Amino acid sequence: MKDETPRRDPLFSMRLLVGLWIIALGAIFLAGNLGWIDTRQAFRLFWPLIFVLVGSSMVMQKTNKRSNRWGWVFIGVGIWVFADKIGWVDLNFWQLAFPLALLALGSTLVWRAFHGKPAEIPDLHPGEEHSEFVRSFAVMSGTELRPVSRPFRGADLSAVMAGIKLDLTDARMEGDTATIEVFAFWGGMEIYVPPDWTVTSKVATLMGGFVDKRRPTSTVPTKNLVITGFVVMSGIEVKN
């Protein structure tokens, strides 16, 4: 028997939130034009609720656990700033934002140091070729990497107020898939890939961006590069 239960539109929740926000904006403008409220004062009070709107939309994306976690962070920030605006709390969020960001950054680096996958150092023998795993940690500096001597196995790149350029255009991938784990805080990364590689992004961004600038090519893809990690107030560009 065919199930005739209507499927829920996956965009329903987001459409509902955006619709309610537009209605609220219309109501504020109307009340201001009628002289009932001060429109500028209303916006100064209620703009933190934008964070709540964005966070709620991220939480409703059940398939993305990382987006779900950061959605709750956005909701918490919006509620805290709104409570400070209307005088419910005496502790200003922005006075703690920078120290909290430093604590989060340091905790992330410590966690990755203890729980990250250790580098495998093979025993080298004459005439034997081994794969290469690239590691780079840059702080307030610039680094350029171009591994070509051995097959590329993957990479772990971290940039803190720094820039990293990884040129893989002449690299040979070990197997059909390789993974690059990235972490950028107030920094930037450029990753160059061969024309026969496809790129899959699993990067989470916070006030940052991931841009795929590869030019179209007629080369048939034979390898897949997966880029995963976290970007804070930074940018990552992929080129060929």
TrEMBL record:
TM annotation in the entry: 12-36, 71-88, 94-114
Stretches assigned to the LiaF transmembrane domain: 17-113
Keyword check for rRNA-binding: no
Record has Transmembrane helix as a keyword: yes
Keywords: Membrane, Transmembrane, Transmembrane helix
Annotated Pfam families: LiaF-TM
Annotated protein name in UniProt: Putative membrane protein
